[in-house]
What does this fold into?
Amino acid sequence: MSEPPDRAKGDGGDARVSLAEVERQLRDLLGPNGGATTKIAAVAAGATALAVGFASVYLLGRHKGRRRASVLEIRRV
It folds into this structure.
């Protein structure tokens, strides 16, 4: 990782964090691709959740439909 900034915490000096420092730290954490893998993972997780949701609604609907369906018996005379 990178070295921490040269700032003493207890000396009463300027303890402000600049935007450039925050951006640099984020770039160091996210790596060279700038967080593209995070976006891909989020899209994959959303697609999986959507597929599971559709499957559960479909199966619950089938179960409810079978429970409501009456059994009809036809006899020839």
In short: The two ends are 87 Å apart (CA to CA). The helical segments are 19-30, 36-68.
